[in-house]
Amino acid sequence: MSKQTSSKRTSLIRIAAALIGAIALQAAATAQAQEKVTLLSNWYAQAEHGGFYQAVAKDIYKKYGLDVTIKMGGPQVNNMQILAAGQADFSMGYDFTVLKGIEQGLPLVTVGTSFQSDLQGMMTHADVPGLAALKDKTILVAGSGQSSWWPWLKAKYGYTDAQSKAYTFNLQPFFADPNTVQQAYPSSELFQAEKAGTKANFFLFAQDGYPPYGTTIITLQKMVATKPDLVKRFVKASAEGWKSYLEDPAPANALIKQDNKSMTDEQLAYALQKLKELKVVTGGDAAKQGIGIMTDERWKKTYDTMVATGLLKADVDWHKAYTTQFVKDMHVMP
Fold first, then answer.
1. What is the pLDDT of residue 7?
2. Which of 70, 73, 119, 159 sees the fewest Cβ atoms within 10 Å?
3. Cβ atoms within 10 A of the Cβ of 202, count?
4. Is 113 helix (H, G, I), strand (E, B) or coil?
5. Nearest CA to 111 among 3, 9, 11, 227?
6. How many CB atoms lie within 10 A of CB 88?
7. φ, ψ dihedrals at 177, nearest 5°
8. What's the pLDDT at 23?
């Protein structure tokens, strides 16, 4: 081997080593640049959180420079209190909660949504044709329903509080009495009824005009003001997570089952099928404007509904409850 050839080889080795070093430094810098973000869920891990878990599992958040940790919520967790205290950066939430928070002076703001409609609805026995046919029925309503959908349903169809009884998240009263109907989610109570062999109908409130979005993304107004780019990246990555989850849920489902040991593959598959059937992620405005979209018109309807049913004071500045700046040009198409 000539000295010239040896010299060239040495130079190439040095160049390669330098490139490897540069790549390693870039990777380290990228890793350091990942901004830590905490998302608080609104219940135990389930398919209704699939898009967020998918964005973690498929490194979609990382693609946007975010290191996201999902903290699981539950019945004893006060999400808005935790968010307001700065113990989470984002929370899954609900329009009514944010509007009520604005009325109470909490600096909350909704920056995106998962579902174009709330998943709340009514489960009835198979002989009931619709929500307008409940005048002679006993209606089971949980405490949260009393301050959200029940006033709307009463006003719409002329039902009365005399018809309602407390829903304790036990389906036995429904199974035992064919004249009883109850609040339900399509992926939960309806699933349990089918497993028990009881034929039931499910009516989504949104299909009768109930206006709120479902599983929204909430943060503090300070976050929007001081870190708008982080919010934009989080919302975009979450929308992409939802698109991915509908296509291949396996990565997210594995993480969901890690967080929620009682969750089964059967229930996850059932819930995902319902999300697809109801088109809550991809239907409505999302079909033309993209997953996660929110509009002024929809928020106005929710505000009007709350005011009309006595759940909100008319002088509340409802525009503070949301911003469309992060979703209007996102265009994550189904």
1. 52
2. 159
3. 16
4. strand
5. 227
6. 22
7. -125, 110
8. 45
Say how far apart CA 159 and CA 242 lie, in whole Å. Answer: 37
The alpha carbon of 94 is separated from its chain's Cα centroid by a whole number of angstroms, namely: 9
User: Both tokens of residue 7?
Assistant: 């010299």
Tell me the residue type at 90: F
- Say if CB 187 and CB 47 are below 8 A apart: yes
Look at residues 116, 112, 62 and name the one whose alpha carbon lies nearest to residue 287: 116
Q: Which long-range contacts (CB under 8 A, 24 or more apart) does 144-147 make?
A: 145/120, 145/183, 147/96, 147/311
Alpha-carbon distances of 31 from 24, 27, 35, rounded to whole Å = 10, 6, 9
Structure token digits, residue 189: 């109570």
Q: First CA to last CA across the chain, in angstroms?
A: 61
pTM: 0.89
Structure tokens at 204: 């989504």
Residue with tokens 């009824």: 193
**What pLDDT was estimated at residue 173?**
97
- Which candidate, 304, 321, 324, places its Cα nearest to that of 312? 304
Ramachandran quadrant class, 20 (left: phi over 0; alpha: psi -120 to 50; beta: rest): alpha
User: What whole-number distance in Å separates Cα of residue 39 and Cα of residue 227?
Assistant: 16
The H or E element spanning position 111 is: strand 108-115
Q: CB under 8 Å to 80, separation ≥6 — which residues?
A: 91, 93, 97, 101, 106, 108, 218
Contact residues for 153 (Cβ-Cβ < 8 A; gap 6+): 131, 159, 205
Residue with the two structure tokens 């319902």? 274
Dihedrals phi, psi of 58, to nearest 5 degrees:
-95, 10
Residues of the chain with pLDDT under 50: 3, 5, 12-13, 16-18, 21-32
Q: Which residues pair with 89 in a beta bridge?
A: none
Q: What was the pLDDT predicted at 33?
A: 80
Closest CA to 43 of 230, 271, 326: 271
96 contacts 306 by C-beta, under 8 angstroms: yes
